[in-house]
Specification:
single chain; 381 residues; Aspartate Aminotransferase, domain 2; 2 domains; seven-stranded mixed sheet; three-stranded antiparallel sheet; 12 helices; cysteine desulfurase activity
Length: 381
């Protein structure tokens, strides 16, 4: 089996799974309990919080645990909007955000808020000048992802931060789900970023756990009320085993970056160069430092993406039709549409997303099978 769908989810590290099992079986107390089992759980919880904070260069009191990226995006977009409602009702999100952000913004537009969408250029990068032109006195929130999940374009977070430097009343949120472990933290957690969301299963932790970075002093409406956990912002019994597992996975993926990222980038480069030789191939992702090293999206002329996905699956090679969250809906890649790609062409798009678990032998096997798949599509092309 060759798994080239790591942007959808990653295989948990064995060490992360061992951590989960050990904590779940030995430190199973409720962190809110007063007895020793509860105290032990609290100790693990807070040690994990500090480790996560240290690894992204922030303070432990700025880290809040969630169930993943979708929950984090929903909480920040809606929580900031309602907290800052007395000061304005205007929100800006980029036109290529993940549905967790765009659908949250849409929901807010149905509840008294006004949403503007910052456009992107033909390469999939947010138009910074256009975004600046959308700012208004009543703007309370700007949300732009760090790395686009469909084509891998790295968004100009620093340039947007510069624009917002003189706008202290506007909260700046970054969806960093596809960024961590793939590009330097400094590229998307600038000093101007107020909130950022992360999901553990994107960096080899178990599913169902993530975290939000909330800059100290920034206001947001609580996500869940009840028992007072997570400083009253998310009241529910903490998933201590999952959190500890995520902290371990984050440390491992961070430790590996120096040698894993060049390896991943080299594999992408080989595939990119080979695909570029074919006449009826459109490559939607770019090369170089402006694109994530792990994501490569392309299409075969006249062939819908799902056909290609299943063709590779017959050979136990797993890729996807861009965003996993939208693939079963059969919709063309929203990012490509926003880039001005015609719908029919966008419907051909498939995404390869690589990881350190992959190797050159798998790349060679993929290219061999690709040659066969491409030949079989000749009549359609």
């Amino acid at each position: 089996m060759i798994y080239f769908d790591n942007s959808a989810t990653t295989v948990p590290y064995p060490e992360a799974l061992r951590t989960y099992q050990e904590v779940a079986t030995k430190i199973f107390g409720n962190p809110s309990s007063l007895h020793q089992l509860g105290t032990s759980a609290t100790r693990i919880l807070e040690a994990s919080r500090k480790q996560v904070a240290d690894l992204i260069g922030k303070s432990a009191d700025e880290i809040f645990f969630t169930s993943g990226g979708t929950e984090g995006d929903n909480w920040v977009i809606k929580g900031v909007a309602f907290e800052k409602k007395p000061y304005g009702k205007h929100i800006i999100v980029s036109d290529i955000e993940h549905p967790a952000v765009k659908e949250s913004a849409k929901w807010l537009s149905e509840h008294g808020f006004e949403v503007s969408y910052a456009p992107v250029n033909a390469q999939g990068f947010v138009d910074v000048n256009a975004l600046a032109g959308l700012l208004r006195p009543d703007t309370i929130l700007v949300s732009v992802m760090a790395v686009n999940n469909e084509i891998g374009s790295i968004q100009p977070i620093q340039a947007i931060s510069d624009i917002l430097a003189d706008e202290p009343t506007i909260s700046f949120h970054v969806d960093a789900v596809q960024a961590i472990g793939k590009i330097p933290v400094s590229a998307y957690l600038t000093d101007r970023v107020d909130f950022a969301t992360f999901s553990g299963h994107k960096f080899h932790a178990v599913r169902g756990v993530g975290f939000v970075y909330k800059k100290a002093g920034k206001k947001i409406t609580p996500l869940l009320t009840g028992g007072g956990q997570e400083k009253d912002f998310r009241s529910t019994t903490e998933n201590v085993a999952g959190i500890a597992s995520m902290a371990k996975a984050l440390r491992l993926v961070t430790d590996k970056e120096a040698f894993s990222l060049p390896k991943i980038a080299k594999m992408k480069k080989i595939i990119f160069d080979e695909l570029a030789k074919y006449e009826d191939i459109t490559i939607f992702s770019g090369e170089g430092e402006d694109f994530a090293p792990n994501i490569l999206t392309f299409g075969i002329k006249g062939v819908r993406g799902e056909v290609i996905v299943h063709a590779f699956e017959e050979h136990q090679i797993y890729i996807s039709t861009t965003s996993a969250c939208s693939s079963k809906a059969g919709k063309p890649a929203g990012t490509l549409i926003s880039m001005g790609v015609p719908t029919k062409l966008a419907q051909t798009a498939v995404r390869i997303s690589l990881d350190d678990d992959n190797d050159m032998g798998q790349v060679e096997q993929f290219l061999t099978i690709f040659k066969q798949v491409y030949a079989k599509t000749q009549k359609v092309r």
